From TrEMBL:
InterPro entries linked: D-isomer_2-hydroxyacid_DH (IPR050223), D-isomer_2_OHA_DH_cat_dom (IPR006139), D-isomer_DH_CS1 (IPR029752), D-isomer_DH_NAD-bd (IPR006140), NAD(P)-bd_dom_sf (IPR036291)
Protein name, UniProt field: D-glycerate dehydrogenase
Domain (D-isomer specific 2-hydroxyacid dehydrogenase NAD-binding) ranges: 110-288
Keywords assigned by UniProt, alphabetized: Oxidoreductase
Presence of keyword Cytoplasm: no
Superkingdom field: Bacteria
Top-level class of the enzyme under EC nomenclature: oxidoreductase
Pfam family, one: 2-Hacid_dh_C
Domain D-isomer specific 2-hydroxyacid dehydrogenase catalytic per the UniProt entry, residue ranges: 5-319
Oxidoreductase keyword on record: yes
Amino acid sequence: MKLSVYITRKLPDEVLQPLLEKFTVRMWESEEVAVPRDVLLQESERADALLTMISDSIDAELMGVAKNLKVISNLAVGFNNIDTEAAKQRGIVVTNTPDVLTETTADLTFALVMAAARRMTSAERALRDGEWTSWSPLGFTGQDVWGTTIGIIGMGRIGEAVARRAKGFGMEVLYCNRSRNAEAEEMLGALRKELDELLAESDHVVMLAPYTDETAGMIGARELALMKPTATFISASRGGIVDEDALYDALKKGTIWAAGLDVYATEPVPSNHPLLSLPNVTAVPHIGSASVRTRMEMMRVSMQAITDVLEGKNPKHRVV
Ligand code: GLV
Ligand code: GLV
Protein backbone atom coordinates (compact mmCIF):
# COMPACT_ATOMS: atom_id res chain seq x y z
CA MET A 1 0.00 0.00 0.00
CA LYS A 2 1.20 3.48 -0.84
CA LEU A 3 2.04 5.85 2.00
CA SER A 4 -0.31 8.71 2.59
CA VAL A 5 0.38 12.45 2.39
CA TYR A 6 -2.02 15.19 3.48
CA ILE A 7 -1.51 18.75 2.19
CA THR A 8 -3.34 21.40 4.19
CA ARG A 9 -3.90 23.91 1.35
CA LYS A 10 -4.50 23.64 -2.37
CA LEU A 11 -1.24 23.57 -4.31
CA PRO A 12 -0.94 23.72 -8.11
CA ASP A 13 -1.21 20.39 -9.95
CA GLU A 14 2.08 20.75 -11.81
CA VAL A 15 4.02 21.01 -8.54
CA LEU A 16 2.26 17.98 -7.07
CA GLN A 17 3.23 15.56 -9.82
CA PRO A 18 6.32 14.02 -8.19
CA LEU A 19 4.36 13.26 -5.01
CA LEU A 20 1.38 11.82 -6.89
CA GLU A 21 3.64 9.26 -8.56
CA LYS A 22 4.81 7.84 -5.27
CA PHE A 23 2.17 8.39 -2.63
CA THR A 24 -1.54 8.63 -1.99
CA VAL A 25 -2.03 12.39 -1.80
CA ARG A 26 -5.01 14.09 -0.23
CA MET A 27 -5.34 17.85 -0.09
CA TRP A 28 -7.57 20.57 1.36
CA GLU A 29 -9.06 21.94 -1.84
CA SER A 30 -9.24 25.64 -1.00
CA GLU A 31 -6.58 28.22 -1.74
CA GLU A 32 -8.18 30.97 0.34
CA VAL A 33 -9.59 29.25 3.39
CA ALA A 34 -7.47 27.36 5.90
CA VAL A 35 -8.38 23.75 6.62
CA PRO A 36 -10.81 23.54 9.56
CA ARG A 37 -9.40 21.97 12.71
CA ASP A 38 -11.75 18.95 12.69
CA VAL A 39 -10.86 18.10 9.09
CA LEU A 40 -7.17 18.47 9.84
CA LEU A 41 -7.44 16.13 12.84
CA GLN A 42 -9.37 13.57 10.86
CA GLU A 43 -6.93 13.63 7.95
CA SER A 44 -3.98 13.46 10.32
CA GLU A 45 -5.22 10.13 11.72
CA ARG A 46 -4.20 8.30 8.57
CA ALA A 47 -1.40 10.52 7.25
CA ASP A 48 2.20 9.35 7.06
CA ALA A 49 3.21 12.89 6.13
CA LEU A 50 1.73 16.36 6.49
CA LEU A 51 2.58 19.35 4.33
CA THR A 52 1.56 22.29 6.50
CA MET A 53 1.13 26.08 6.37
CA ILE A 54 2.09 28.57 9.08
CA SER A 55 -1.64 29.07 9.67
CA ASP A 56 -2.02 25.44 10.86
CA SER A 57 -1.49 24.71 14.53
CA ILE A 58 0.38 21.39 14.62
CA ASP A 59 0.28 20.61 18.31
CA ALA A 60 0.52 17.67 20.70
CA GLU A 61 -3.21 16.95 20.40
CA LEU A 62 -2.86 16.50 16.65
CA MET A 63 0.25 14.36 17.00
CA GLY A 64 -1.61 12.25 19.54
CA VAL A 65 -4.16 11.16 16.92
CA ALA A 66 -1.66 11.02 14.04
CA LYS A 67 -0.45 7.51 14.80
CA ASN A 68 1.31 7.01 11.45
CA LEU A 69 2.85 10.44 11.15
CA LYS A 70 6.54 10.41 10.21
CA VAL A 71 7.15 13.90 8.90
CA ILE A 72 5.70 17.41 9.14
CA SER A 73 6.97 19.55 6.29
CA ASN A 74 6.19 23.24 6.91
CA LEU A 75 5.91 25.51 3.88
CA ALA A 76 7.89 28.30 5.57
CA VAL A 77 11.21 29.05 7.18
CA GLY A 78 9.51 29.77 10.53
CA PHE A 79 7.98 26.84 12.41
CA ASN A 80 6.49 28.33 15.59
CA ASN A 81 3.12 26.86 14.49
CA ILE A 82 4.53 23.40 15.25
CA ASP A 83 5.13 21.94 18.71
CA THR A 84 8.64 20.75 17.93
CA GLU A 85 9.12 19.27 21.42
CA ALA A 86 6.08 17.05 20.97
CA ALA A 87 7.35 16.02 17.54
CA LYS A 88 10.77 15.18 18.93
CA GLN A 89 9.28 13.01 21.68
CA ARG A 90 7.33 11.04 19.12
CA GLY A 91 10.21 10.77 16.65
CA ILE A 92 8.36 12.81 14.03
CA VAL A 93 10.70 14.69 11.69
CA VAL A 94 9.97 18.40 11.16
CA THR A 95 11.33 20.27 8.12
CA ASN A 96 11.18 23.85 6.84
CA THR A 97 12.08 25.79 3.67
CA PRO A 98 15.00 28.14 4.37
CA ASP A 99 17.45 29.45 1.76
CA VAL A 100 15.06 29.54 -1.22
CA LEU A 101 13.14 32.43 0.36
CA THR A 102 16.04 34.43 1.78
CA GLU A 103 16.52 37.02 -0.97
CA THR A 104 12.82 37.38 -1.73
CA THR A 105 12.02 38.03 1.93
CA ALA A 106 14.91 40.49 2.18
CA ASP A 107 13.49 42.38 -0.83
CA LEU A 108 10.11 42.76 0.88
CA THR A 109 11.73 43.75 4.16
CA PHE A 110 13.74 46.45 2.45
CA ALA A 111 10.66 47.59 0.55
CA LEU A 112 8.94 48.08 3.92
CA VAL A 113 11.85 50.17 5.19
CA MET A 114 11.56 52.41 2.16
CA ALA A 115 7.78 52.57 2.13
CA ALA A 116 7.55 53.42 5.83
CA ALA A 117 10.39 55.97 5.81
CA ARG A 118 9.16 57.75 2.67
CA ARG A 119 5.45 57.50 3.54
CA MET A 120 4.75 55.76 0.28
CA THR A 121 1.47 54.13 1.13
CA SER A 122 -0.12 57.16 2.80
CA ALA A 123 1.13 59.44 0.01
CA GLU A 124 -0.35 57.10 -2.58
CA ARG A 125 -3.62 56.99 -0.70
CA ALA A 126 -3.72 60.81 -0.59
CA LEU A 127 -3.13 60.96 -4.33
CA ARG A 128 -5.84 58.41 -5.08
CA ASP A 129 -8.23 60.25 -2.75
CA GLY A 130 -7.73 63.51 -4.65
CA GLU A 131 -5.76 65.13 -1.83
CA TRP A 132 -2.75 66.03 -3.97
CA THR A 133 -3.81 69.57 -4.68
CA SER A 134 -0.47 71.36 -5.01
CA TRP A 135 3.23 70.80 -4.76
CA SER A 136 4.48 72.05 -1.44
CA PRO A 137 8.03 72.23 -0.08
CA LEU A 138 7.35 69.96 2.85
CA GLY A 139 4.45 68.02 1.41
CA PHE A 140 4.73 64.26 1.93
CA THR A 141 8.26 64.55 3.26
CA GLY A 142 9.62 61.50 5.02
CA GLN A 143 12.94 60.25 6.36
CA ASP A 144 15.95 59.19 4.37
CA VAL A 145 17.02 55.62 3.93
CA TRP A 146 20.34 56.12 2.13
CA GLY A 147 23.30 56.95 4.32
CA THR A 148 21.45 56.21 7.58
CA THR A 149 21.91 53.44 10.15
CA ILE A 150 19.95 50.22 10.01
CA GLY A 151 19.61 48.00 13.08
CA ILE A 152 18.84 44.39 12.32
CA ILE A 153 17.46 42.24 15.14
CA GLY A 154 18.01 38.61 14.17
CA MET A 155 21.08 38.34 11.95
CA GLY A 156 20.35 35.05 10.21
CA ARG A 157 20.31 34.46 6.49
CA ILE A 158 17.55 36.97 5.84
CA GLY A 159 19.16 39.55 8.13
CA GLU A 160 22.41 39.23 6.19
CA ALA A 161 20.57 39.62 2.89
CA VAL A 162 18.95 42.82 4.22
CA ALA A 163 22.37 44.04 5.40
CA ARG A 164 23.79 43.53 1.89
CA ARG A 165 21.01 45.68 0.48
CA ALA A 166 21.68 48.31 3.16
CA LYS A 167 25.36 48.47 2.20
CA GLY A 168 24.26 49.34 -1.34
CA PHE A 169 22.40 52.29 0.16
CA GLY A 170 25.51 53.48 2.00
CA MET A 171 24.08 52.53 5.37
CA GLU A 172 25.81 51.59 8.62
CA VAL A 173 24.71 48.16 9.79
CA LEU A 174 24.14 47.35 13.46
CA TYR A 175 22.83 43.98 14.56
CA CYS A 176 21.64 42.11 17.54
CA ASN A 177 21.72 38.34 17.64
CA ARG A 178 21.93 35.56 20.21
CA SER A 179 25.34 34.64 18.89
CA ARG A 180 27.96 36.61 17.04
CA ASN A 181 27.71 36.56 13.23
CA ALA A 182 31.38 36.78 12.22
CA GLU A 183 30.57 36.62 8.52
CA ALA A 184 28.28 39.65 8.73
CA GLU A 185 30.94 41.52 10.68
CA GLU A 186 33.76 40.68 8.28
CA MET A 187 31.94 40.85 4.95
CA LEU A 188 29.51 43.69 5.70
CA GLY A 189 31.17 45.59 8.53
CA ALA A 190 28.12 44.94 10.71
CA LEU A 191 28.56 45.93 14.37
CA ARG A 192 27.04 43.78 17.09
CA LYS A 193 25.15 45.77 19.74
CA GLU A 194 23.07 45.20 22.83
CA LEU A 195 19.37 45.57 22.03
CA ASP A 196 19.01 48.90 23.86
CA GLU A 197 21.98 50.42 22.06
CA LEU A 198 20.76 49.23 18.70
CA LEU A 199 17.33 50.74 19.32
CA ALA A 200 18.79 54.08 20.38
CA GLU A 201 21.29 54.36 17.53
CA SER A 202 19.34 53.06 14.52
CA ASP A 203 17.32 55.10 12.04
CA HIS A 204 15.58 51.95 10.85
CA VAL A 205 15.00 48.98 13.13
CA VAL A 206 14.24 45.73 11.36
CA MET A 207 12.84 42.74 13.26
CA LEU A 208 13.84 39.43 11.72
CA ALA A 209 14.20 37.24 14.81
CA PRO A 210 12.24 34.00 14.96
CA TYR A 211 9.32 33.75 17.39
CA THR A 212 10.43 31.84 20.49
CA ASP A 213 9.81 31.99 24.25
CA GLU A 214 12.76 34.39 24.41
CA THR A 215 11.65 36.79 21.67
CA ALA A 216 7.89 36.85 22.40
CA GLY A 217 7.03 40.43 23.40
CA MET A 218 10.68 41.54 23.35
CA ILE A 219 9.72 44.92 21.87
CA GLY A 220 7.39 46.76 24.24
CA ALA A 221 6.80 50.33 25.41
CA ARG A 222 10.22 50.57 27.09
CA GLU A 223 12.07 49.45 23.97
CA LEU A 224 10.06 51.68 21.61
CA ALA A 225 10.76 54.66 23.86
CA LEU A 226 14.48 54.16 23.29
CA MET A 227 14.10 54.70 19.54
CA LYS A 228 14.60 58.00 17.74
CA PRO A 229 11.44 60.00 16.94
CA THR A 230 12.54 59.88 13.29
CA ALA A 231 13.05 56.10 13.28
CA THR A 232 11.06 53.40 11.56
CA PHE A 233 10.23 49.97 12.95
CA ILE A 234 9.87 47.10 10.50
CA SER A 235 8.27 43.84 11.57
CA ALA A 236 9.08 41.07 9.10
CA SER A 237 9.42 37.80 11.01
CA ARG A 238 6.59 37.12 13.48
CA GLY A 239 4.05 39.52 14.92
CA GLY A 240 4.07 38.36 18.54
CA ILE A 241 7.57 39.72 19.04
CA VAL A 242 6.32 43.31 19.28
CA ASP A 243 3.60 44.46 21.67
CA GLU A 244 1.07 45.88 19.20
CA ASP A 245 -0.64 48.13 21.77
CA ALA A 246 2.70 49.72 22.64
CA LEU A 247 3.54 50.08 18.95
CA TYR A 248 0.20 51.78 18.33
CA ASP A 249 0.86 54.25 21.16
CA ALA A 250 4.38 55.06 19.93
CA LEU A 251 3.16 55.66 16.37
CA LYS A 252 0.13 57.65 17.47
CA LYS A 253 2.16 59.89 19.80
CA GLY A 254 4.96 60.19 17.26
CA THR A 255 7.65 58.83 19.55
CA ILE A 256 8.71 56.89 16.45
CA TRP A 257 8.23 57.95 12.85
CA ALA A 258 6.57 55.04 11.12
CA ALA A 259 6.20 51.28 10.97
CA GLY A 260 6.26 48.77 8.16
CA LEU A 261 4.46 45.56 9.00
CA ASP A 262 4.29 42.22 7.25
CA VAL A 263 3.35 40.15 10.30
CA TYR A 264 0.88 40.48 13.16
CA ALA A 265 0.16 38.93 16.54
CA THR A 266 -3.02 37.43 15.10
CA GLU A 267 -3.32 36.60 11.43
CA PRO A 268 -5.20 37.31 9.26
CA VAL A 269 -5.30 40.73 10.90
CA PRO A 270 -8.85 42.19 10.98
CA SER A 271 -9.26 45.33 8.84
CA ASN A 272 -10.44 47.27 11.90
CA HIS A 273 -7.17 46.63 13.78
CA PRO A 274 -6.09 49.93 15.44
CA LEU A 275 -2.67 49.87 13.76
CA LEU A 276 -4.36 49.99 10.35
CA SER A 277 -6.05 53.27 11.23
CA LEU A 278 -2.70 55.08 11.42
CA PRO A 279 -1.32 56.95 8.40
CA ASN A 280 2.27 56.20 9.42
CA VAL A 281 1.79 52.44 9.13
CA THR A 282 2.52 50.54 5.94
CA ALA A 283 0.91 47.16 6.25
CA VAL A 284 1.00 44.13 3.97
CA PRO A 285 -0.53 40.68 4.54
CA HIS A 286 2.42 38.40 5.42
CA ILE A 287 3.90 38.37 1.91
CA GLY A 288 7.62 38.26 2.71
CA SER A 289 8.34 35.20 0.59
CA ALA A 290 5.53 35.80 -1.88
CA SER A 291 7.15 35.91 -5.29
CA VAL A 292 5.86 33.36 -7.79
CA ARG A 293 9.31 31.83 -8.24
CA THR A 294 10.06 31.56 -4.54
CA ARG A 295 6.70 30.13 -3.56
CA MET A 296 7.05 27.46 -6.27
CA GLU A 297 10.53 26.65 -4.97
CA MET A 298 9.23 26.42 -1.40
CA MET A 299 6.60 23.92 -2.54
CA ARG A 300 9.23 21.82 -4.29
CA VAL A 301 11.52 21.90 -1.26
CA SER A 302 8.75 20.91 1.13
CA MET A 303 7.62 18.04 -1.10
CA GLN A 304 11.16 16.79 -1.50
CA ALA A 305 11.46 16.70 2.29
CA ILE A 306 8.39 14.45 2.47
CA THR A 307 9.72 12.14 -0.23
CA ASP A 308 13.09 11.95 1.50
CA VAL A 309 11.69 11.05 4.90
CA LEU A 310 9.15 8.55 3.57
CA GLU A 311 11.91 6.89 1.51
CA GLY A 312 14.19 6.66 4.53
CA LYS A 313 16.59 9.41 3.50
CA ASN A 314 17.77 12.42 5.44
CA PRO A 315 15.87 15.58 4.43
CA LYS A 316 17.96 18.64 3.65
CA HIS A 317 16.32 21.08 6.05
CA ARG A 318 15.49 19.22 9.22
CA VAL A 319 14.39 21.23 12.25
CA VAL A 320 13.94 18.26 14.63
C1 GLV B 1 7.00 32.95 6.61
O1 GLV B 1 6.66 33.70 7.47
C2 GLV B 1 7.99 31.96 6.80
O2 GLV B 1 8.33 31.66 7.96
O3 GLV B 1 8.44 31.40 5.79
C1 GLV C 1 15.75 32.34 9.15
O1 GLV C 1 15.20 32.79 10.11
C2 GLV C 1 16.63 33.03 8.26
O2 GLV C 1 17.09 34.14 8.57
O3 GLV C 1 16.85 32.42 7.19
